[in-house]
C-alpha cells in the first residue's frame, strides 16, 4: 500500500540558539519546545490534531527535562490530548535520530504525520547532570572491555587533531571561519525564514546569541588549551554550551499531496553507525561512507554538508578523510559559532540545511554528527 510513499519535510523551524545563561536561560525547556511546536503549526496551518506522534531528542533527561519532555511539550503547546510524544537519546545526534525514526515510521505506514525535533537547555540542566550524583553509567562488563575511565570528548578531539595532523592554527582558522559565516548569514537575513522568536519577559528573542565578530588568530592564540597543558583544543575552537530547540513536520508524500502541502525535501537515506568509544568522535567518517555507498553517490554529488562542529578537529578530519569540498561545509556557520544545544542540535542543523537547500536550489544535502559513546548518524535530504 505504501511502496511508493516517501517521507517528506513540509516545514522546519527552530528557536534562536541562546548562549549559556543568556536570553533563553529563563525559559523552561518544555516551554521552549512548545514555542517551536506552536510555530510549526502557525507556519503551516496544519491542524495539530492530525499529528500522530512527537519524537523528541534530549540528552540530559533529568529534572526539568525528564518525564518524557516530548509529551510535556505537546501538551504545553496546547495540542490535543490524544497527541502523544516520546523522548529519545542518541547523545548529540538525538534529534537527528528522531527525524530518522519519524521518516522510517512514515515510510512503513505507521504514521501519516509526525513531528520530529529536540531540545536542550544547557543553562538550566548542565551537561553531565544525569551522572552528577557520581553514578557511573559504565558497568563492570563495559569496564572489562574498555576500561573504567569515562570517555572524554575533549581528549578525543585532541587525539583526532594529532591523528589527522591538524595544527592549532588550522583549528583556530576554522573557528574564525565558522563565526564569519554565521555573522554573514545573520546580516543577510538568511536565518529569518527558519527562526521562531521566543517570548521572554515581554520581549522576543529572534537572533542566535553565540556569534562573535572581530576575532583574530592572535586573540585566539592567547587562549589556554582546555583539556591538556600542551593541547590544541580550546574554548574557541570547540562548540558552545547553548539553549535551543528545533522541529520538523514530516509526513508521507501521499498525505502531503492530499492536504495540499508542497514539501521542501524528501528524507532520502538515513544510516547510523558505531565507532570506537575513544576517541569517540570519528563516527561521521564511516557514517558518511556508509550513506554514500548505500545511495550509490559520491561526495561530489552532494551540494551542501552539515557536519556538527563539536570541535574543529572533528569537522576538519571529516573534510580531509572524505575528500569533500570545503566551500560546501557548514555554509552558514556551525556549532562553534551558533552553539550546540545537544538534544536539539540535530534538528537545528537539519532545519538550517533544508532552508539552505531550498534557497539555493541544491539537490542533495548531507548531515552527520559525532555522538557520545562512539556513534554517528548520517542523513541525506533530496530537494523536491
Overall description:
GO terms for molecular function: acetyl-CoA C-acyltransferase activity. Belongs to the thiolase-like superfamily. Thiolase family. It comes from Rhodococcus opacus (Nocardia opaca). This is Acetyl-CoA C-acyltransferase. By secondary structure, the protein is of the alpha+beta class. The chain is 34% helix and 20% strand. Strands 1, 2, 3, 4, 5, 8, 9, 10, 11 and 12 form a 10-stranded mixed beta sheet that branches. α1 packs across α2, α3 crosses α12 and α9 packs parallel to α10. The relative contact order is 0.21. The model has no long low-confidence stretch (mean pLDDT 97).
Give a short summary of the structure.
Helix content is 34%, strand content 20%.
Question: What is the topological layout?
Answer:
Layout (H helix, E strand, L loop, with lengths): L6 E8 L3 E2 L9 H16 L9 E4 L11 H8 L8 E4 L5 H15 L4 E9 L18 H7 L6 H11 L4 H20 L10 E3 L2 E3 L11 H5 L20 E11 H7 L5 E10 L9 H12 L8 E4 L4 H11 L12 H4 L6 H16 L3 E8 L3 E9 L1
Parallel strand pairs: 3-4, 3-5, 10-11
Antiparallel strand pairs: 1-8, 1-9, 2-8, 5-8, 6-7, 9-12, 11-12
Amino acid at each position: 500500500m505504501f511502496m511508493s510513499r516517501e517521507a517528506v519535510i513540509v516545514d522546519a523551524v527552530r528557536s534562536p540558539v541562546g548562549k549559556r545563561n543568556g536570553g533563553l536561560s529563563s525559559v523552561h525547556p518544555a516551554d521552549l519546545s512548545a514555542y517551536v511546536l506552536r510555530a510549526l503549526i502557525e507556519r503551516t496551518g496544519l491542524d495539530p490534531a492530525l499529528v500522530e506522534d512527537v519524537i523528541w531528542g534530549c540528552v540530559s533527561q533529568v529534572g526539568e527535562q525528564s518525564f518524557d519532555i516530548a509529551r510535556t511539550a505537546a501538551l504545553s503547546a496546547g495540542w490535543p490530548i490524544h497527541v502523544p510524544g516520546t523522548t529519545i537519546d542518541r547523545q548529540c545526534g538525538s534529534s537527528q535520530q528522531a527525524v530518522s525514526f519519524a521518516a522510517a515510521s512514515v515510510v512503513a505506514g505507521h504514521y501519516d504525520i509526525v513531528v520530529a525535533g529536540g531540545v536542550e537547555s544547557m543553562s538550566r540542566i548542565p551537561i553531565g547532570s544525569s551522572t552528577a550524583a557520581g553514578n557511573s553509567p559504565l558497568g563492570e562488563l563495559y569496564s572489562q572491555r574498555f576500561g573504567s575511565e569515562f570517555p572524554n570528548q575533549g581528549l578525543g578531539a585532541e587525539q583526532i587533531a594529532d591523528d589527522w595532523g591538524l595544527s592549532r592554527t588550522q583549528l583556530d582558522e576554522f573557528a574564525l571561519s565558522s563565526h564569519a559565516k554565521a555573522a554573514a548569514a545573520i546580516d543577510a537575513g538568511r536565518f529569518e525564514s527558519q527562526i521562531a522568536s521566543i517570548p521572554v519577559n515581554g520581549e522576543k528573542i529572534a537572533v542566535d546569541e553565540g556569534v562573535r565578530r572581530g576575532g583574530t588568530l592572535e586573540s585566539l592564540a592567547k587562549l589556554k588549551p582546555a583539556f591538556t597543558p600542551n593541547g590544541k583544543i580550546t574554548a574557541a575552537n570547540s562548540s558552545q554550551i547553548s539553549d535551543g530547540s528545533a522541529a520538523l513536520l514530516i509526513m508521507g508524500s501521499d498525505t502531503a499531496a492530499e492536504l495540499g502541502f508542497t514539501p521542501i525535501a524528501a528524507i532520502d537515506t538515513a544510516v547510523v553507525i558505531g565507532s570506537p568509544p575513544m576517541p569517540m568522535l570519528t563516527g561521521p567518517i564511516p557514517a558518511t561512507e556508509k550513506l554514500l555507498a548505500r545511495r550509490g553517490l559520491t561526495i561530489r554529488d552532494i551540494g551542501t554538508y552539515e557536519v556538527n562542529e563539536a570541535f574543529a578537529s572533528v569537522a576538519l578530519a571529516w573534510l580531509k578523510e572524505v575528500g569533500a569540498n570545503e566551500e560546501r561545509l557548514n555554509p552558514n556557520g556551525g556549532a562553534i559559532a551558533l552553539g550546540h544545544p545537544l538534544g536539539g542540535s540535530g534538528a537545528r542543523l537539519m532545519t538550517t540545511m533544508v532552508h539552505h537547500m531550498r534557497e539555493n536550489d541544491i539537490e542533495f544535502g548531507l548531515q552527520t554528527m559525532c555522538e557520545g559513546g562512539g556513534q554517528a548518524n548520517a542523513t541525506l535530504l533530496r530537494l523536491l
